[in-house]
Each structure stands twice: as structure tokens, then as C-alpha cells.
Amino acid sequence: MADDAAPASRDYRETVFLPDTPFPMRAGLPVKEPEILARWEDLYVRLRADRQAQGAPLFVLHDGPPYANGAIHIGHALQKTLKDFVVRSRFALGFDVDYVPGWDCHGLPIEWKIEEELRGQGRRKEDVSKAEFRERCRAYAAQWIEVQKAGFRRLGVLGDWDNRYATMDYGSEAAIVAEFHKFVVSGQLYRGSKPVMWSPVERTALADAEVEYHDHVSPTVWVKFPVVEGPQAADGASLVIWTTTPWTLPANRAIAYSPEIAYAVYEVAAMETGLDFEPWAKAGDRLIVADARAAEVAAAAKIADWRRVEEVDPSGMVCRHPLSTLDDQYGFAVPLLSGDHVTDDAGTGFVHTAPGHGVDDYLLWLAHGHREIPETVDADGAYQPHVALFAGLKVLETEGKKAGKFGPANGAVMEKLVEAGNLLARGRLEHSYPHSWRSKAPVIFRNTPQWFIRMDTPVDTPELKGATLRETALTAIAATAFYPEAGRNRIRSMVEGRPDWLISRQRAWGAPLAMFVDSETFQPLVDPEVNRRIVEAITARGADAWFTEPAESFLGGHDPARYEKVEDILDVWFDSGSTHAFTLEGRANTRWPADLYLEGSDQHRGWFQSSLLESSGTRGRAPYDAVMTHGFTVDENGEKMSKSKGNTLDPDTVIRESGAEILRLWAAMVDYAEDQKIGKTILATTTDAYRKLRNTLRYLLGALAGFSETERVDPADMPPLERYVLHRLHELDGQVREAYGRFSFQDVARPLTEFCQNDLSALFFDIRRDALYCDQPDSLKRRAARTVMDLAFERLTIWLAPLIPFTMEEAWTTRFPEAGSNCLRTFPETPAAWSHPAEAARWAKVQSVTSVVMGALEAERREKRLGGPLEAAPVVYIDDAERLAAFEGLDLAEVLRTSQATLVAGPGPEGAFALAEVPGVRVEPCKAEGRKCARSWRILPEVGQDLRYPDLSLRDAESVAAWDAAHG
Fold first, then answer.
1. Rounded CA gap, 51 and 95, in Å?
2. To the nearest 5 percent, what fractions of the chain are helix, strand and coil?
3. C-alpha to C-alpha distance for 83 and 745, rounded to whole angstroms
4. Dihedral angle computed from the Cα positions of residues 958, 959, 965 and 968, in that order, rounded to the nearest 10 degrees
5. What pTM does this model have?
6. What's the number of CA atoms in the CB half-sphere (13 Å) around residue 806?
7. CA 575 to chain centroid
8. Running DSSP on this structure, what letter comes out for residue 913?
9. In this structure, are residues 641 and 486 in contact, taking their beta carbons and an 8 Å threshold?
């Protein structure tokens, strides 16, 4: 049994080398981070100058521009932080990094805000000049650029903020117009009258990338088209169509069928009885439908019984319009046209065809030799004045609280069909329907003249070499690296199936389609001198010059009476897709193409694709070598964030309460390729991980107090434990470099966090704590431990700097206040001699044995037979030659963190403690014998043998004697 320690004659705390550092345990990030940011004001400029002076290789990250509207949200925070990981890691890897933050400024959301402001002043958009309206838009965007810039910089994002780009800058607008002119000159641009997705609420055409699909409830109707020409079996019969857009029936010009579908005439024998209403079908009616759809049509029409009269071939049939008896305007013939898009999966097997309101309808109509496309609906989604029976009625409401809801058009059409006796049935259907991604209101297909870029016409330019734009873009996709790889298939499938690029918009705030067209042929005027004057004017006075200056100032010798000035604006995706042209080209210390584009996965249909198409059409390749995408940020339950649900998380709030570093560490630890969850619980877990990292750094700083080069120990002379830690540093060096190289930040954060917690705190620090505190300063063990700590600190502070730069800067400058910013450093080389696979194998075995010992001591502690490990003197039995050999040259008690320990070769007694997962190891948890050292607290028989210090162990007595001698 151990005796109590003799009463101490002195307080030995002054002789113990406890950690000493001003680096606080509590980070105080909300206060500390702004102080560090102030010191980083010119950091990006210094970094670039430093790397360029060293002749470093260049890495270019081109910024996908956020929209200049509103404060930053959590999605912005994730994306900009990921970009900062790229920038900072490439600097740390020794690159010169070009990153110019930018903003997308044109487009509808800002127009709406200005229209709201005007309404608040009792004015309408029509009451102000286009110049004033655009100036208001410009000022609004400029205000939000500054707000967002401050938010991004508060996150610690490095970049050339003083030279940011914006699509509304005069030079940017001129460059965008110059890019547009390239498509005009190369013949890739054309004017087409075809149905496009149109937003009545926004009064503009929309491209595919501006449309998203949501569930929507639409009215459905089964409508009879009386047959006027066809086989004898069809005499007196009506062909039945089904549609979810009754409002398009006034624009009907044909009915599509498939020769692969079996159709027949069915004669009604009896109707259902006992209904609350009288069905529109009657006994004796003869109806033509697809056999596969007959049962469902009968059910919808409340037909109790009918008989199949005869199969019928629809080819060559002609019907009359179902409204023809109400107005002569509908007295035209309605032919049956064969179409590949027709199926018998739903409806009746026939497809109502309105060539002005559907792409399939339009293409089928043209394929059968027709050219006239009816225009029945205006820009507000209301029937044109010439549309009989329905003039002025709206398909969708465009103003007030009902904006986006169905207007009276559908109901009016159904009423007239009833009046004409041609409505067979009606209902309602919830289905996926296109909506504007900005207004969230439903869109319609509307025939309108627009400007398009051809996807499938060979282009005879030096860049495309006779290939089509689609072919060129697909070739570029194959040559691009994707992170993750799944992004390649995503964008490729979109480019393979997309239609021609619709680039014109009928709005005010944007870069114009600055060209003239022949007033008779509508062909663009192709004149380099005219284009030069246009670009020069916009460079000097902005895009407003196009709208305010007379045509004569641009046309030169051309007759103004012959040409019309196009005042549509460009699709904002064309704007952002052109940013590479004025951000990467023509600037010093950068290059085209970019090494990397980085945005959310939704940008496969947005910025990635518009940039790809714009660059492929003008330069024959993508403007990037690699594309990196991230998923969406959702709440802790995996739900999409929305203000209405109250589940949003404001990054500014997190920064004020916890610091930007917590958001950055969260971003580093998630799998950004998937959707990322975030919320208070997740951030609490992140904060806990941060504290552990911080405490590791704090311990390193404290233990390294006063470390000098004279202490340094050559790795060859180090004990096994230090050699093992060096091996782990060698392993991590390769892992960290490789992970940063492929933008896998999770594979940096998690291994380094685990290294700090497991290898350093739980193993190395725990074992070496006694030697660090109590050994003499010149002991090999203590010097080796501090040498390894120095090397670990040197690497951790730069390896983690791209992810949590504030904390690494604080740690580095705490230890080396005169050394300059930690961010200016690069990854140090890690010698190959540090690699010790044998030590890794040894310590894996040692830790397996340690787990059994800890289990035995914990069991004793629960039974109150032991207190802490220093009260123990375990006997460890190892019946495994390899595990036994692992302890050769090690101090067993030191490794087990006990006062004493004994190692015995053999199986050990049956009743000894064991763990099934570690076979061949048993432990007897004996109590340590002797007295407790008043300095190290180890219980040893030798305590008191040195009469100078009767309450100390021999090691501690020598250490104190040396300390006393040094301190007089």
C-alpha cells in the first residue's frame, strides 16, 4: 500500500514547467476577427506581389457573380467561403492566385424593386424616362454591391476587392455588347417567331435556365371536334381531345395523332344516372378516341355504357373548330397531323395543337408546310383585341394580390364550349408546371418575335471550324474536369437537349441587343464601323447611350429610315456568361481560360452553361479548365430554407454571436457536393470541434514557451513516440496537399481534427505531459517532444490556414509577433525521412493494449477501488508476440500514464480484465506501492530516497536541484 506523501516543506509549482501562453482559451472571435481583418486590408495585394516576385505559377479562379439585390444569405456564405478555401489553399501551395469578385447587376428583380419605389411615390414605370429608370436601377445595384462586399469580407474572403467587376460597369456593358456582336457577325444570331416561355407577370420572355417547375392545379377539359371529312365510319362523329390549357383553344389550328395508336369510333348507349348534374354527353353520340383511353374518357364523361363501333384511321381527317358555330372567325378547317410526340399514356390519344402556344405544336405545324402562326395573347397574358369571343380576357392575373393566379380566360372558354355543345367533360389536375424562378408565378407559351442563337447550324469561323455550337460545347465539356465528376453528365445532358438560345428580353434594365435591323427583312446590319461606334459610345457613357442617342450617331453613312434600332435587352445569362471576356482578358497578371469556375449545382443550367455557350460560340472552347459545384444549404431536418417556414439562418447573426470562423469550419467539414445541413445544433457541434482545435493550439503554444533552436533534436535521435508523430505529420502532409489539390476540403478538416484530438491530445500530449512539466530542460525526451511540437505547430498553422485563417493567424502571431502574417507562408516541405511505417504499426498495437488497461482502470474507478491512473500499477499480460514486441524500448508506466506498470509475457490469470476485441491481452489493475511525489504526483517506492528533497521522486529531486542551482 502506498503511504501518504510526507508533508511538503515547499511549494514546487515554480519548478514545474507548466504551459505558458497569452493565447486565450476563449476565442472571442466576434471581437478578434475584425482586428485581424484590419491587419489584412492589403493582404491580397501583398500575397500576389510576393508570389509574382518568386515567379510562382498562376492559378485563376473566376468569380460567378452573385446578384446585387439584398444582404448575403447562408448560401452566399457557403459559396464564397468555398471560393476562399480555393484561393487561400492555392496561395499556401505556392501559387499566385487571381481572384476578382464580381456582381451580376442587370435583370428583373432590380426592375421590380424600382417599380415598387415608384408606386410608393404615386408614379408608374411609364411615367419616367428609360434613362431615369435605368439610373435608379444602377444606384440600387451599387448600394447592394457595397453591402454584400462588406458581408463577404467579414467572412475573411480574400480577393481583389478594390478592383471588383460588375456587369453594369460601362466597360463591362461595352464588352458584353462586343461579345453579342460576335454572334451577329458570325451569323449565329437569328430572329424567329415561335412560342417561347413568357411571364405575363414580368412581361418578358424567359430562357430555360430562368424556369423552374412546381406543382400547380390546372383545369382539364375533354373537347369535341366535329369531323367534317374522313372515312364513312366517322360520319356524324366528333374527335375528342384533352387539354390542361383551355385558354389555348382559340389558337387551335390542328389535331395531332400517332399512326402507332389504335383509334375507334364509340357510340354512347347510356349515361350514368343519379348525378347532381346533367352530363354533356348524350345517348347516340359518336366519339373517336384511342382504344387505350376509352375507359377513362367514358368515366370522365359519366358514360355508363358505350359500344366500340369500328376502328378508324385518323390520317386525312378534317374537323371543324369547336367554337365555329359561335363566330365565323373559327370557321377554318382543323386538319389531323401525324406527330411523333403523341402517346396514349394520358388524355384521349389525340393532342390539341396550338402552334403559337407550344414547342411541339409549333414544330409539327411547320413540318406539315404551314407558316402562319396565330398570335392570340399579348404581353400581359390577355387575348388580343382581334380574338373573337374572348378579346381582353386574361389568362393569368398580373397585378395585385391575385398576380400569378388564373384569370377569367379558362372559364370563359369552357362556358363557350358548353354553349357550342362541344364540351364533353371537365376536371382539375395537379401537375408539375413551369414557373418563373424570379416571380414564382406560372408562365405560358406565347408566340412572339425573339432573337435566338443557333445551336445546330455549322459555323464557318476560325474558332468553330465548321462545327455547330452544340457540337463545340459538348467537345468542351469532354475536355473539362468536374468536381464532383457527376457534374459532367448533368451539364452534358442539358446541352444535348436544349433548344436554340433565346437571348432577347423586353425589359429596360440590362445590356442592349445593340444592333440595327433592316426594317423590311429584319436582317441585322453587319458593319464593323457601326459596331465600333456602338461599343465606343457604351464604353464612354454606358449602355444608356444606346437608348438615348439618335440612330444617326451610330449609323454613319447608312440611311436611318431603312434601319430600326433594336431596344430589347440581352438575357442576363448572356451578361454573366460574358464575364470571362472582360475579367480574364485584357487584364494584367491573369490569363484566359480560368483554371476553375465554382458555383452551386443549379448553375449547370445557369452560369456554367451560359459561359460555356458564349465562349464556345466566340472562342471555340469553354472559358474554364475545371468546374466545381456544391449542393444547397438546408435546415437540420433537410428541409429547404424559407422565411415563411422560419427555418432560415442569417450568417450575420452567426458571425455576431460566434464568429465567422465557426461558419468556415462548418463549411470545411461538410460534404459540399451534397446538400448541407445547418442549424443551431449542428453549429454547436462545430463550435465544440473548434474548441478542441483551439485547445490543441493553445497547448502547443504553452508547451513551446521559450523553445529555441539549441533544444532541437535530430529525428534520428528521437524516442519512438516522437518518431511516430513525425510519421503522422509525413502522412498528413501528403493527404493535405492531395485533398487541397482536388478541392476536397472535408478531407483536410476531418483528418487534421482527428490528428489533433487523437494523435496529439489523447496520445502524445497525454504521455509526454509528465516529461514536459517535470523533466529537466535539457533532457532528451523533453527536447525531442518540444522539437516535434514545434514541427507540428509549424504545419498545423499553415495546413489549417485556408479553412480557419483567423485562428491560425492569431496562433502564429502570438508565437512569432514579428514574423509577419501567417497567410504569407507556404506549406513547408516534409522530409521523407520522417516516414516510419514501422512506428505506425508499433503504436497501433500499443494503443490496442492501452485500451484494455484503460478499461480495467475505469472498472476499478467505478467500484471506487482506484482514483486516477496515477494510483495504479497494472500488471499487463500479453500472449501475442507481435504486441509484446511493440513495447520494446518503451517505458510501460509512461505509455499507460500510470505510476508503475509491469509487463508479463503469457496468457495471464483467468479472472484478469480482458476485452474481446483485443485477444491475448489481460490486465490486473493493482494499486501503486510507495509514496506520492509532491511534484509529479506519481506514487513510487523511491520517493524520499534523496534526502535533500524527502517528498520527491529521484527524477524530480534532480530536476529541482538543477532548478535551484539555476535560480540561486
1. 7
2. 45, 20, 40
3. 11
4. -130
5. 0.85
6. 27
7. 20
8. B
9. no
